[in-house]
Amino acid sequence: MRYLTAGETHGPQLTAIIEGLPSNLPLAAETINEELGRRQKGHGRGLRMQIEKDTVQLVGGVRHGTTTGAPVALVVENKDWTHWTKIMGAEPAAEENEGKRRILRPRPGHADLNGGLKYNQKDLRNILERSSARETTMRVAVGGVAKQLLASFGITIACQVLRIGDVTAERSSLTAAELAAITEDSPVRVTDKAAEARMVAAIDAAKEDGDTLGGVVEVVVEGVPVGLGSHVQWDRKLDGKIAQAVLSIQAFKGVEFGIGFEAAEKRGSQVHDAILYSEEKGFHRESNRAGGLEGGMTTGEPIVVRAVMKPISTLYKPLLSVDIDTKEAFSAQVERSDTCAVPAAAVIMENVVAWEVANAFMEKFGGDSLEEIAANLTNYKAQVERY
Ligand code: EPS
């Protein structure tokens, strides 16, 4: 399967096209809207989230609530567009609007300067508009579709925030379903109430200072069959694919699986997961330090992946920058933004990981209809059992 997104943060709409979905998958806009709503939440979000109420329109590939096998096209309108028609319209700008809201002072940490140089754009808005994390709206919508596909085969996925700034939350090892239920009620997507209060306070303090905060988020995928991904070629390794997808999320700087970077300081005997066998469970493990992946393939244990998000680079008390016209030193541009989007980033990562797992699932069991996939999966499970 594949998908592409298009659209600008202050443009009329965001768009995605998904190619390769099977037919007969029940697909409801409301379920995708729930994901979009989750992405909009979280303490530390800015004013934009009060303007938008992200809702998806399914404008291709779905009929009477199920997919037909045709490309699925999704659209989310930007409500804020009504304030930007003159600045962001596709038609030539009227003379009085030319150069309005032009961005000349690149924000350190953002795509502004590199993008301006690369695409030879003298208005950095042409970079900002597309590099904006607003684009993740569509990745969550697409992930919402992937989650529906995975759910039909008993694969569930959830996320939690583990750190915001210097506040660490207790890592909870609840099931995906329990985790999803508990974190949904937390303004910072944690299960640890004491840490929650300290995180909220840290975000408020950063906001007060015109500063921003990053953090660490974790995603867990349960019910994954053994053998998604492959060891035989570098670009078929599922951990590599998930890592690429996660690092492509705006502001993400690092990713780890299972015990991750902790493995560096431990001995092999403390890092790997002994292999066990019983009639009832077949091959299994009692620990999951590998985070559900060995040799680029799923082990059948839950996939556990963590990532770090840097603090958002738009600062209300900006760092030093240079005016691209005059080359003089100036403070960087201030564009409306969030103080902390870590809770939202957890939802984005959950959906991005869902897509990668769904894609690997389709690669292994792919058929043109949901029924064909189900038959392939049943067959494979029986083969694994007989092994
Ligand atoms: C948004 C994410 C952020 C917000 C954006 C909406 O993106 P960025 O990477 O550009 O900081 O700033 O909101 C605005 C551009 C705005 O006008 O407030 C999102 O997640 O929807």
If you had to describe this structure to a student in words, what would you say it looks like?
- There is one protein chain.
- With 387 residues, the protein is of the alpha+beta class.
- Helices cover 34% and strands 19% of the residues.
- The chain has helices spanning 29-40, 48-51, 85-88, 112-119, 125-131, 136-151, 176-184, 193-208, 238-247, 268-271, 342-365, 370-386, and strands at residues 2-6, 13-19, 56-60, 62-63, 66-67, 72-77, 156-164, 167-168, 215-222, 252-257, 276-278, 282-284, 293-294, 297-298, 303-309, 320-322, 329-331.
- It has a 5-stranded antiparallel sheet. A 4-stranded antiparallel sheet has the order 1-2-6-3. Strands 4-5 form a two-stranded antiparallel ribbon.
- The longest helix is centred in the last third of the chain and has 24 residues, at 342-365.
- It is globular, with a radius of gyration of 22 Å.
- It starts with a strand and ends with a helix.
- Bound molecules: ligand EPS.
